[in-house]
Structure formats: C-alpha cells, structure tokens
Design goal:
367 residues, alpha/beta, 2 domains, seven-stranded mixed sheet
Length: 367
C-alpha cells in the first residue's frame, strides 16, 4: 500500500516518530532499533521498547555513527528472539542481507524499515553544524532533489558516490525523496499492515524521477573516484604505497559490518613473531617496516569480503591515518562483483559466490 503520513505544523520528525510509535503500540513489533538523540545532542542507535521514548528518535539526522546491520545481526542471530523493527539506510540493509547469507543474522524476527537516504556527514562535522542550528536534513533532501549533481562537500566520501540511496526490497519504505517533507511523508507498507494502522491508499509522488537523477549524478562521481584510486593502485604508488601509512590498528576490520569471521587470524597469536625474527628480517633488507604484516592484513580482508562490500565507508571513517580504505575496497569490489554478476545485498535469495561451490565457476568467468 502506498500511503501518506500527514505532517502537522511542519514537524516532519514528530510525524515520523508517530509512525514508529504506532508499530509498538499496535503490537506489530516488540521493539524498534532507531537512532536516538542523547541529552548531549549526539545521535546513537538504540533498542526502544517504550513508545514515549521514541520522542527522542531522530532517523532523519544525517549521520552514521556505525553500520547498524551488526546490531540487527546480534538481535536476530539466535533464538529465542523478539520481533524487532529496524530503521536502516540502504547500505545498512544491504549489509544485513549479506550477514543473513553468512548465517550471522536472521530476517525471521526482523521488520525492515528502509529509509531513503540523501547522505550523511562525518560525526564531528554533523555535531558542529547541528550546534549552529543548521537545518541539516532539510537542506540535504532539498538539494538532493533539486541539484543532485552538486554534492554537499561536507558529506562523507562514501555518500558522495553512493548510487543506491534507496532500498526497494524492504516491507516498509519511508519515502523521503520526492515529497515536500514539511507537508507529508510518503510511505509504502504491506496492505494488511496499512489496514491495521488505518491508513488510506494514496498515489505515488515523484520519488522515482528524483531517485534516478541522484543515481545518475552519484554514478558519475563514483566513476571519477574509481578512476583516480585505480590510477594510484595500478601506478607507481601501487597498493603498498596506498596502504603505506597503515598502523594495523584493526579499526577498519572492527567497524566493518560484514567482516564476519567469529575467529579472526589477525586477533590470534599468529602474527606475534619472536623478537629476533623481526631483527632477522631487518638484516635481510636493511630495514623492516613496523608494524608488520599490514599488506597481508588488507589483502586478506579484500579476499574475504570484496564480494560483499556495500560501500558504507565506515572503514574510512574510523581510520586514524585517513587511508582511503573504503574507496579501495569499493573500486576492487566493483570489478570482482561484476565478474560474478553479483550485487551485495540486492536480493536475499541471490547466492553469495564466496560460500557457494560450483565446479565450473572459473570456466564460466573465462578462466
């Protein structure tokens, strides 16, 4: 059912909070995962069971403190489990779908609520702009609809080249693009749920045209960014040069929503070499880079999850030395995904090549 949530007095956030409260109060779900404003003004994901606490919910805040697919996985991977509604952006839902394929999450008890995304800011930038009272999400959605080719320079790098701003395979879709959000929010949900919540059918808005323009603009930006990073990876600098400043802090691995191994070799003692081993390596070359094994770390991660990288960019966000980790993974992942004709998170029924054995698969891709 296509329907509309009426916005009263221009308070779009209150209208959205009201819808989430309905899901709890009508017993559709037992709890809701959504971004909440803290008393200090920061935004963090939270699991909410009391509807009045959703007055602090702020799904419109253009900030991503972490990819919440991992949180949804923790709430659903084992039984017994509650019925949980999860408000997620496109990159988060696509990561969650990949986790389901890796048996690190389950959709059986989750209700996916897909939020149209116009992009997110770096956390410090978001907090600084919010403290100044700037109309952050209002400007973002307005500019995305009217001037998608002029990306906000303060957006995260991953958002500037995200060609999947919406997710169409969720049962509930909050369609923020293409509407005057000071007047109404378009919503799509199952017919029986719409009837239970007493919503009336409505005609679709101009969302599709807006989405297509955003996709075109961001695809152009993506291709330019990929050309630039590939020139570095394949040129004189090389992969080793791009990752030269890595301190192997494991931040990128820890924050990645689809770095799925429960037992990780890089958190084991495998790389705790004996002190004299480092000295011997240094004698062989005259100097030995420390910390060691940084290239092996990144290449192993690429091998593990290049097919499933959804481009959320959280790895870049947390890198203390500002390596373009996300851009490298996306650029390499694009070619790998094309080889297997696989789009991560596109469809829950689409088999993940990494965990699917086919005797003739390399023949099929031309090897």
């Amino acid at each position: 059912m296509e329907t509309i949530i009426t916005v009263e007095n221009g308070n779009t956030l209150a209208a959205l909070q009201g819808f989430l409260k309905q899901l709890l109060e009508h017993g559709i779900v037992d709890a809701i995962v959504a971004p909440l404003r803290t008393p200090s003004g920061t935004v963090t994901p939270a699991l909410v069971t009391r509807s009045e606490l959703l007055n602090a919910a702020d799904p419109l805040a253009p900030v991503l403190t972490g990819n919440s697919a991992t949180l949804a996985g923790k709430l659903s991977v084992r039984e017994p489990r509650a019925r949980v509604g999860v408000v997620l952006r496109s990159c988060e839902i696509r990561a969650l779908v990949e986790l389901v394929k890796m048996q690190q999450a389950s959709l059986d008890s989750l209700t996916l609520i897909a939020l149209d995304c116009a992009g997110t800011y770096h956390v410090p930038v978001f907090q600084e702009m919010a403290q100044k009272g700037e109309a952050l999400w209002q400007n973002l959605y307005k500019n995305a609809a009217e001037q998608p080719e002029q990306s906000d320079e303060n957006l995260r790098a991953a958002c500037k080249i995200c060609e999947q701003p919406v997710y169409e395979n969720a049962p509930i879709k909050i369609k923020l693009l293409g509407s005057d959000l000071n007047q109404e929010i378009h919503l799509e949900l199952p017919d029986e749920l719409g009837a239970q919540l007493e919503y009336s059918p409505a005609t679709e808005n101009g969302r599709q045209n807006v989405v297509e323009k955003i996709i075109t603009a961001r695809t152009t930006a993506r291709d330019a960014a990929f050309t630039e990073i590939r020139a570095r990876l394949e040129g004189e600098e090389g992969v080793a040069g791009v990752f030269a400043a890595c301190i192997r802090c494991h931040n990128c691995m820890n924050v990645c929503p689809i770095c799925y191994c429960k037992t990780c070799v890089f958190k084991s003692q495998v790389f705790d070499h004996e002190p004299m081993q480092f000295v011997e390596w240094a004698k062989q070359k005259g100097a030995y880079r420390l910390p060691s094994d940084t290239m092996l770390f990144h290449l192993t991660r690429l091998n593990h999850m290049g097919l499933s990288c959804v481009g959320c960019g959280m790895c870049t966000e947390v890198c203390p030395v500002e390596l373009p980790v996300g851009m490298v993974f996306r650029a390499i992942g694009q070619r790998l995904q094309a080889t297997f004709e696989y789009a991560p998170g596109r469809n829950i029924d689409e088999q993940l090549p990494l965990i699917t054995f086919k005797a003739d698969e390399w023949t099929e891709v031309g090897e």
